[in-house]
Amino acid sequence: MSNKRPRLPQPVDSERIPLKARKVSFSWEDTPLHWVPGEPFATHTINVLHLLLPAGERWFVHVYKQVLPYIRDERLREDVIGFIGQEAMHAQAHDEVLPHLRELGLDPTPYTAQVDWLFEKLLGDRTLPPGKARKWWLMERVAIIAAIEHYTAFLGNWVLNAEELDRRGADPTMLDLLRWHGAEEVEHRSVAFELFLHVDGSYRRRVRTWATAFTALVFLWQRGARFFMANDPTLTAGRASRASFKDFHRAGKAGVLPSTGDMLRSVPRYLSRAYHPSQEGSTEQAVAYLAASPAAKAAEKAMEKAAERAAEKAVERGTA
């Protein structure tokens, strides 16, 4: 029998910062349907985010509110509350893209209805007796979120460094949405995993729920891309039918989507017993983008003005 103990995940303390929600807003009237010029497949593959994230991130918030009573570490509790605020804002920001897609002739309702069913029914609360069964289902969902967050952080890190999108003339407003969101995913990339370790941490559960999350994400993403391509009013029937893994591989090699190799290499990293999300991506890079993001800067100014108005009203009440 081996006397070696398994290596425990080691966070990088310098990568942790306090989390805050940024109340951003975007104007979509000048964003074209194919916001990556000449790349409808890459455009629609990324557009799947707008279909999955509103329901998915509202589900994150719902589950995390239920798990708050199980948190015994005050610093982690603060991180989870900050995470909840950021995820709620992400859901709202992506939700606001959908009316613009409808105006351009691409109604996502049939697909979003299926996504809503997945998160609200299949992964939603179940009528279970209090005790072990109810806690088991809560812990299962916490672990699924940790696995999903591994990939949202992966995508966030990718889009922050996807210079080919800039070279191709991608719409700046959509890029700002994706990079603001991606930067916050990198910023809070350790929270879901640390919460899972805190309340459960079973390696067997981590592997099982990773398999569930990865399979579901691949299925939903390919289905979503095919839905967009098939319903894009500007594409011919032959071109609309193209939404295969071969197309994904081609776009990855071109730099307008994550590469297949990078995606595959992300799997053993998450399944390593020594894995910790803080070892991936750069908080410094994420914070630098958030300081430069037009939407994040506007949100910061709006908050400052609101604070100034509140202070002025407080002074007025004190002198009345």
Short description:
The protein has 320 residues and is an all-alpha fold. The chain contains 14 helices and no strands.
Q: Give the proportion of residues in helices.
A: 55-70%
Number of helices: 14
Query: What is the count of β-strands?
Result: 0
SSE order: HHHHHHHHHHHHHH
Q: Please give the largest β-sheet.
A: none
**Beta-strand content:** under 5%
- Overall shape: it is globular
The low-confidence runs, each spanning 5 or more residues with pLDDT under 50, are 1-5
Q: Indicate the mean pLDDT.
A: 92
| Rounded radius of gyration (Å) | 21 Å
End-to-end separation in angstroms reads: 78 Å
Class derived from helix and strand content: mainly alpha
Observed structural traits:
single chain, 320 residues, mainly alpha, 14 helices, 0% strand
Q: What does it look like?
A:
By secondary structure, the protein is mostly helical. It has 14 helices and no strands. The longest helix is centred in the middle third of the chain and has 29 residues, at 132-160. Residues 1-5 have low confidence and may be disordered.
Helices and strands, with pairings:
Layout (H helix, E strand, L loop, with lengths): L39 H28 L6 H22 L2 H6 L5 H14 L9 H29 L2 H5 L4 H16 L3 H9 L3 H29 L5 H4 L4 H10 L5 H12 L11 H10 L1 H26 L1
